[in-house]
Amino acid sequence: MKHFITIKDIAKELDISVSTVSRALRDTYDVNKETREKVLEMAIKLKYKPNFNATGLAKGSSHNIAVILPFITNYYFSTVITGIQEVAYQSGYNIVLYVTNDSPEREIDIISNLPITSLDGLLVSIASNSDYFDHFVEVMANEIPIVFFDRVANNLETSKVLQDDYNGAFEGVEHLIENGYKKIAHIAGPDTLTFTQNRLRGYLDALHKHQLSTKEEWIVHSGFSQEDGKKDAELLMSLADRPDSIFAANDRKAIGAILYLKSKGIKVGEEMGVVGFTNDPSSEIISPALTTIAEPAFEIGKKSCELLLKHIERKNFHPQEIVFPGKLIVRESSSKTI
């Protein structure tokens, strides 16, 4: 079994006390320069790595960050985590991951049982239908900073990192209009989420700009899964006045819609346009390939962690809101000439 070097090993090699080694590593006033240099040289020689959990007790820092998010099994959140990890590990911080399974009750339970004394900050993407945020207020009252990303709590004064949901939706819907689609439906996420509301606004404003009407029954709110997309498409296709295209809140819903349309013999693109939002790798695999708005998930993860570290290191760091633009990726699902 691998032996991890501790300050006891350094003390043994130098024949000094453990407390002297500890004070030397913390550069306290009561250790002379010569002793401190010997301790540092021996620490390097033995490849000693400090135990952040232990030093945190003395310095008020644990070097642990909690990441709380709805899922880890989809492309977007797994990519966000990769971005978070890159910044955290380069800065000597550990990641403690919590998954809510998109449940507000589970989210509250996780926050209520967090080991606050061993965390320096939180990175959070809230669960669907979350409309109660007192549990986050309590964390902030304990001077633990929180940065929200993607799904944010708008009424809390914290830093937030998002993609440009409004303009991404506007561009996606306008693309459908420019390709000749006139009766555009929107299969949206839960209506309580800020980004759902912003994508809906982008959808409606694009229609208004081009003087196209919509119908209440062409806007369907549900979850984010592929199965939700199938059910939403089935509902739309059952209407007496059916739309000729679909703008989906995410790629999984869009792919679900495509699979349903194909099962009914409807030619996607030629007869029914579909645009998604995310640029999940599966959007290139589905046939026809899915037109989508690419989200900068990796960059969102990096920036979220960078902001959190600034809040940890500078208690007077003012909250910021960072918005990343999306990018329209045109593929076959929105072309009438495939």
UniProtKB/TrEMBL annotation:
Domain called HTH lacI-type: residue spans: 5-59
Swiss-Prot/TrEMBL keywords: DNA-binding, Transcription, Transcription regulation
InterPro entries per the UniProt record, alphabetical: HTH_LacI, LacI/GalR-like_sensor, Lambda_DNA-bd_dom_sf, Peripla_BP_I
One Pfam family per UniProt: Peripla_BP_3
SMART domains in UniProt: HTH_LACI
Record-level Gene Ontology MF annotations: DNA-binding transcription factor activity; transcription cis-regulatory region binding
PROSITE patterns: HTH_LACI_2 (PS50932)
Protein's UniProt keywords contain Zinc: no
Protein name in the entry: LacI family transcriptional regulator
Organism in which the protein naturally occurs: Pedobacter psychrophilus
